[in-house]
Amino acid sequence: xxxxxxxxxxxxxxxxxxxxxxxxxxxxxxxxxxxxxxxxxxxxxxxxxxxx
Length: 52
Prior knowledge:
elongated
């Protein structure tokens, strides 16, 4: 399964089952993952790690 299909399936699940309470959790986890990935490859890593 591709990542785009997983996102579409998750969106359909939330739309059909009316589980919109999952949306903030998914957004926060995604942003945290992006922060961790960017912290590994940037010169600002020491500053980012001090916030975590």
